[in-house]
Amino acid sequence: MEKILVIDDEKPTLSMFRLFLDAYGYRVYTAENGAEGIDIFRKEKPAIVLTDIKMPGIDGLAVLQQIKKIAPKTAVIVITGHGDTDLAEQAAALHAVDFINKPIKREALEAALEKARQKLAATGRNGDA
Amino acid sequence: MEVLSQPYQEYVTANSHYRTLAEENALLRREIQVARKAAELTANLVVKQFEETEKVLHRFQVANAMRKAVLDSASRISIIATDKKGEITIFNTGAENLLGYLAEEIVGRKTPELFHLQSELDIVRDSLSFKYGSRAKGCDVFFEYAAQKQLAPSEWTYMRKDGTPFPVRMTINTLRDPDGDISGLLFIAMDIAEVKRSEKALKESERKYRLLVRNLPNCVYKGYIDGAIDFFDDKIEQITGYSKEDFLSRRKNWFSLVHNDDLASAQEKVKQALRADDHYIREYRVQSKSGDTIWIQDGGQIIYGENGEVEFITGAFLDITERKLAEKALHDSEEKYRSLFDSGPNPIFVLDRETLEILDANPMAEDSYGYTKDELTGMLFSALGPVDEIYKGIAAFDKMDWPRACVMESKVRHYQKGNKPFYVRVTACPTRLKDRDAIILATTDITEMLEKEAQLMQASKMTTLGEMSAGIAHELNQPLNAIKMGSEYLKMMVENQKRIPEENLVEVSDRINEQVDRASEIINHLREFGHKPDFAKEKVDINQAVQVVHGIMAQQIRLKNIQVTLHLEKNLPPILARNTRIEQVIFNLLTNALDALIQRQKSQSAAAKPAIRVCSFLEGEWVTLTVSDNGAGIAKEALDKVFEPFFTTKEVGSGMGLGLSIAYGTVKDYNGVIDIQSAEGRGTTVKMQFPCA
Question: Would you list the DSSP string of B572-610?
Fold first, then answer.
């Protein structure tokens, strides 16, 4: 099963992600803040990471940078608020694979996950599945 | 003796040499001579004896006379007689009484020197020596003194046996024997201590009377029915500028000074007094020499002669100009205030202090409240508006000086006739009206002002909302996201014809339910916040207000990595205010704190972790709330102005400058105080205090 990590300071959001990603067949890890997320990342080395950008403490962009440092091939999808286009651009510059806007639509999530998988396939890094 | 001795010598000598008859004859003759001489001598002696007897008799006569005098003078007169050597021969009961010696210790033993002050004797001696070249010593001074015929009684000091001095009036006379030779002295002395005392008292009372007359504001006069007048002191000059001499001998008539308008009524008073009571008091104006008008209070007593004709009037003038001026000023000021009362632009009521019954109301009160004056009079003020604050104020009246004793209450809802509400500011001050404790209460219709203020506040809030919109959008997005994802998940599972595990179904429905509530709560806050302000009061839990505002802003603040700590004292008493307005104030304060921290983060590398601290606690009787930040702080020069509307230290476009001004107005509305302390670069603390509800 491919490992996936979701970082968001919103517990209800994390819980919903878990349902979705379970249904998609991922092994889901969640973290409520950036620091916890990086810890879990170091331990589990998931191929895909979804992270919220606006978070107290270490925010999503910082998480993205750190993860790229630890494992540059990781496919990181950033979650932005509605209309945070400049944040999305910054994330793109830091090699995020895609961004999705809250409230998250199923199509957008699936599209982003697909992009991530394609990217992983292109870079030759496969998950456990 | 001279006469006898020569022949006797011859006889003795002859006797031894001649024994003859002739000699015997001669002897006989001589014997006869001697006998004659002896007879002469004896006769002389008898005469002397007689004279002595006479003298004694004389003395007895004197003594008796003295004794009589002593008895007559109720034993308060001292009579002392001496012999010609000055030795005391008589010392009467009066002397015993006054001087404290017994006659037997004195008579034949002492001289009057004993009773005298040596210093007085020295003075007498000196004066005698100066005038007459006398060299009298000891007791002789009295003889000299008496001999100089100083018969007029003069004052001396006598010393009692116990050493106490007392004044005497004394005559010292010489006693003479029938031959006219001085045979002694007679001292007659009278104790005049009492006289002295009463003389002194009399003098004192005269002096006091004179002082009294001089110092009394009253000017005493003796007047006549035709206006002629005499004065007894110069006070009349102080009052009128005319001296008492100006009036003497009918030179100046008092009536000529009296103001024309007052003369008739003044004279009428006297006529009345003549008809009935003979005492009167009148007040009138006179013109002084310099032309000033002086008010005189004139109290007079008509004195009738033996035949019932008016002899004169005795009386006193009092200058009452100052009192009259004060009375006039009072009257003028009453007039003035009456006209203010009648034509004032604001409703004014006079209320009874106990019942708050309306005693009087001005035309504007009729206008504003829609009642006629007749309807208002007698009405309880509570029919027009709340009176709790007024009663509270009354309780404080007594403790304070006017004008601090006045109570002011703003934004009070009053009712016009027909129960139509409007907002007023109330000022109530204690006063007295016709010997009754009353309250002057004025109201100002501030409804329009409040509407403007409300509009302004609304504008300010809308700005705040605009500023907050990004944060609010983020805040709302969170529950929406969870709901969206939950519903998308369900849809996906249904579309893919997959079985949804029951626990997932429960999870999704729970989350959706919960997040919808969360979203609507945010919306409720926003709606409440967006409401136009209401000025009615309710009990507000300040902690709850903090929680609500914190709820709206928490996410936004957290995202800026600012730490907010709440130290809210539990069980704080509620305050009397309006929830939404207090929330707005807290909101404004938190927004300011936030801006200050962001400003600081921008301008410098923040040394300390940016933090906001909100504390609530009870300080004495005051519910206290402080909002502190360690942000940019406010410059000293700007600190005075922060409560002014449209003053802002923020960047152009980021604030209207109404936040603290509204906070100030709101806190004042609820009888609170607000204070700001700030150090540039170190942070700011705003402290608000409200009285408990």
Answer: PPPEEE-HHHHHHHHHHHHHHHHHHHHHHHHHS--SSPP
pLDDT for A129 equals: 33
| Rounded CA separation B221/B218 (Å) | 9
Domain that holds residue B462: 454-531
Identity of the amino acid at A83: G
Within-domain flag for A71? yes
- Stretches where chain B sits below pLDDT 50 are 1-4, 18, 42-43, 45-46, 70-74
Q: How many CB pairs under 8 A join A and B?
A: 73
Residue of chain B whose alpha carbon sits nearest to that of A18: B504
All residues at 6 or more sequence positions from B168 whose CB lies less than 8 Å from its CB, including other chains: B78, B98, B155, B156, B157, B158, B189, B190, B191, B192
Question: Which of residues B454 and A96 earns the better pLDDT score?
Answer: A96
B60: in domain: no
- Dihedral angle at the C-alpha atoms of B401, B403, B404, B410, nearest 10 degrees? 150
Instruction: Return the half-sphere exposure (C-beta side, CA atoms, 13 A cut-off) of residue B510.
Output: 11
Q: Which residues of B18-55 are buried (b: 16+ CB within 10 A; e: fewer)?
A: eeeeeeeebbeebeebbeebeeeeeeeeeeeeeeeeee
Partnered with residue A101 across adjacent β-strands are A80
Chain-chain contact of B480 with A15 (C-beta, under 8 angstroms): no
What is the ipTM, given to two decimal places?
A: 0.88
Q: Which of B480, B505, B531 is the last residue of a domain?
A: B531
In angstroms, what separates the C-alpha of B486 from chain A's closest C-alpha?
A: 6
Assess whether pLDDT exceeds 60 at residue A81. yes
The answer for A 39-98 residues in CB contact with B (under 8 A) is: 54-57, 81-83
Q: Name the 3-class secondary structure at B330.
A: helix
**Residue B345 backbone dihedrals phi, psi, to 5 degrees:** -75, -10
B685, β-bridge pairs: B628, B677
Summarize pLDDT for B126-172 with one digit per residue, the tens.
Answer: 877 777 776 767 777 888 787 776 556 678 888 888 888 888 888 78
Residue in A16, A55, A81 nearest the CB of B489: A16
B422 and B447 Cβ atoms separated by less than 8 Å? yes
Q: Which residue has the higher pLDDT, A13 or B128?
A: A13
Of A12, A23, A106, which has the smallest distance from its Cβ to B482's Cβ? A12
The CATH number that applies at residue B178 is 3.30.450.20
DSSP for B67-102 reads HHHHHHTTT-EEEEEE-TTS-EEEE-HHHHHHH---
Q: Are B538 and B579 in contact (CB under 8 A)?
A: yes
Mutate to test the interface with A, among B469, B484, B488 (most CBs of A within 10 A): B488
Q: Give the pLDDT confidence score for residue B59 in this predicted structure.
A: 59
CB contact under 8 A, B473 and A57: no
CATH of the domain at A27: 3.40.50.2300
Q: Which residues of B touch A20 (CB under 8 A)?
A: 485, 488-489, 492
Place of tokens 């007085």: B120
- Are the beta carbons of A12 and B515 separated by less than 8 Å? yes
Range of A8's domain?
3-123
Q: Could you tell me if residue B332 is inside a domain?
A: no
| Count: domains in chain A | 1
Alpha carbons B284 and B220: distance in angstroms, whole number:
17
CB contact under 8 A, A82 and B488: no
